[in-house]
Amino acid sequence: MVPNINGEHIEDIAKAVKEAGACIYNIIPLIPQSELSHETAPVCQEIDEARTLAGKHIDVFRHCQHCRADAVGMLGGKDFGDMLYQRRIAGSDTFSHG
Question: What is the pTM of this model?
Answer without folding.
Answer: 0.63
